[in-house]
Amino acid sequence: MRFALLGTLRVADGEEWRELDGAKLRTLLALLLLNSGRVVSREQLAEAGRREDQSPSSLGALYNHMTRLRRALGPDLGARIQTSSPGYVVRLEPGELDADVFEVGLARGQAALRAGTWAQAREEFHAALTLWRDDVLADVPALHGHSRAMRLAEARMTAQEGRIEADLQLGRHREVIGELRALVKQYPLRESLHANLMLALHRDGLSAEALSTFADLRGTLAEELGTDPGAALQDLHQRILRRDPTLEPDAAPAPAVSPVRPAASPAAPGPTRQLPADTRLFTGRREELAEVLAIARGGGPTGASETVVISAISGMAGIGKSALAVHLGHRLSPEFPDGALFVDLRGHTAGLEPLPPEVALEQLLRSLGVPARQITGDLAARAALFRSRIAGTRTLIVLDNAAGAEQVRPLLPGSAGCLVLITSRRQLISLDDAHSLTLDALPDADAVALLRNAAGPGRVAADDPAAGELAGLCGRLPLGIRIAAAHLRHRPLLGVADLVEELRQEGRRLDRLRDDDRDLTAVFESSYTRLPEPERHLLRCLGLATVSDFDAYAAAALASLDLRTAERLLRSLADHNLLTEHRLGRYRFHDLVRIYAAQRARAHCGEEEALAIVTRHLSWTLYAVATFIMVLTPGRVRPLDLEPDPAWEFPPVDSHAAALAWFDAEHSNLVTAVHHAADLGLDEIAWQSAFKLFNYVILCSSLEDVLELQQRGLDSARRCGDAHGQSALLNTIAIAHAERGTYQDAARSLEQALVIRRALGNRSGEAACLSNLGSVYLGLRDYEKSADALRQAVEIAKETDSASTLAMAYNSLARVLLEMSELTEARAAYQAAAESHELRGDAIGLAYSLDGLASVDSRRGELDAALDLRGRAAALLREQNDLRRLAPVLDNLAADEDHKGLTDAALAHRREAEAIRTGLKETD
């Protein structure tokens, strides 16, 4: 199986390549391939699809497009696209994506170039370039601005320049002149291309044309940018004027655009090399390595930099920042012949204060051979001396474990030629000229590979399914994986499954992830102790909430903060890499940090206060659900009997779209809240939350999940002896059973609810129960029993002035009468239901009634009226995004269109209904 994006998007299952029809399908597949092995969120995919054709996008539509994409690829290729929260991921094997093969070839060519093996370099670059058929993703314009697409385009130019340099070193200057002329015309400001063209022309005896090329570039730069050519190009210009013999092919010159370094004194000692040993276990980080290597070697996206190149690598404790920096240092060390310096700045070293910058400067100066007596004065004087000593050199400097930008800034060189790699648990956002790279946990495959390598030969079988779970329980954190592997390596009787069983227990997980000199708890502690107390307080509170992610509103409620303070503290925790802002304004923990934060919270405040914090958050969540569900389904639920805390703040949810977006963002958190409240014995919160969530989850969750949630709420209502809660949840459980078609179960639940409501004397509740029973009996085809229950419901609803129940009872009674062919009575009942729903602003109920009225008209042969009514019903359901109910209305509409002879319209509506069902099935 192969995938290609270096040109038009193509796929192959076997030898024959084929292209995908449909711009949106190509865009979705291309985005997944650009992020192969990494999950792409549904939001990112939907946005990419929207950019492709400017059409509105929804998650429901996305499900349909992903199903079409898998179908278009075929079973084998389509199976590579997997659902993985919060979106989709494409799983590829090495060598299956042409971009990956190209990048490997590029790296080999660059290595050969550095080693001076010109023929091999030319062969590697040439092979890599033959993979390109056109511009990257030439037929997917929506992704031309994607970061990897742009990096690939730049890498293509790097490979082309590398191949040209190898050709020049091999004396093939005449062969490359035409190619270089075309490239210079295409990239008129790229000095490296002009340099190679000048050199090739000079070697071919066309020195006058070479000098003319320089003059043309100088004029272009002056006109476009107001600058002169760089020093290296000006030096080449002077050497051509002097007819410098070292420019001839057999002189094996240095690359034409390399800066000139002062020759080292014959008596000078060898350059200082302080990098720690590179670990043999370094695994993965291919994209991160490529990103930093490109910056280090090119200075930036357009070529050599005129300032010092700085790459700041940040990430949480144990994520592998230092290992990456050291590995990069060893990869780049041959390109920095004047030395490789290393300083541990002790920014987060347990038991030690961060290294003051003046002390760090003393260490650096001593490493450069400066006598101690000359290292005097204040911080500014030492920084100036350091900059002076390394000016004009090619020196690599690794500043490891930085506490912050203020510690690092005095240690930076002042002139071009040097590379600085900085690692820090904080994001050094105030280093304006730095290239920032934040490390995430290892991808699944790399995490398992590290586990297998670190555990030693034979300890982790290649096909052991427990290996992936073990890596996941270590949070795919390199330090955690290495510790787990050490246990396997030194305890031969301990199996992978045994260790998995131990780590599944959250309370013991961090205790087990330690060995003789490594301890994840201590590593996290060193980050925690550096925080100001307000950040510590929020971190502890967040650790107690069993939610997948949170925004500032939830954090403020949890920690009793005002919204602005919560926003500031969340950003601070993210800057310290103790939280991740995975979507704008939404944050989440790494699993192991969450466990640590919860342990710190309980140790700090005790179980009683911890319960009070969680209760406050769950109460806030319940109130938000109860408030926003009335916006999402107006007129269908009653307000909650709960007084909100005056200090609580809520997001501005004042429209159906805003309410739906809030529920979608909080979906998993809201379901978790019900279970969490029940587990803690907060049964009143648990059952009310489950009940209030029903009108949302019935729209977007599988019916099995709905039933599980409502049953959990019912169990809580029974434990706290709340009869009203029991009858309410028996009613919602019955509705879910009816939706699933298990009418006998629905009838049993409603009959239990009816007994409770009659015992309570709850007449309006009795009417609602009878109304639902009538609908269930209709499902069981017991029309007489159904009509009797519904007529009772209508009478009691009129008596108790229960408008919503009256509307629903009329709706259901009309359906029964329609089944009994009592068309006149059925139409009157549907009309009464429609008027009631419209008066109450219940759009979904109104859509039901309109569809029913259409069914009556259709039976009477009044097809124009039926089509109009069904069209109005479908429009209402689209506005409410109620896809589950929209599909059958579209089926009815198509049937009427067929009877009317509107074949094309009928076919379009059937296809739309089928696409909706496919998307819903994938969601379920």
TrEMBL record:
OmpR/PhoB-type domain boundaries: 1-92
DNA-binding region extent: 1-92
UniProt-listed Gene3D superfamilies: P-loop containing nucleotide triphosphate hydrolases, Tetratricopeptide repeat domain, Winged helix-like DNA-binding domain superfamily/Winged helix DNA-binding domain
Region feature Disordered, mapped onto this chain: 247-277
Protein's UniProt keywords contain Transcription regulation: yes
Annotated coiled-coil segments of the chain: 780-840
Keyword annotations of the record: Coiled coil, DNA-binding, TPR repeat, Transcription, Transcription regulation
Protein name from the UniProt record: Tetratricopeptide repeat protein
Species annotation: Actinospica durhamensis
Lineage: Bacteria, Bacillati, Actinomycetota, Actinomycetes, Catenulisporales
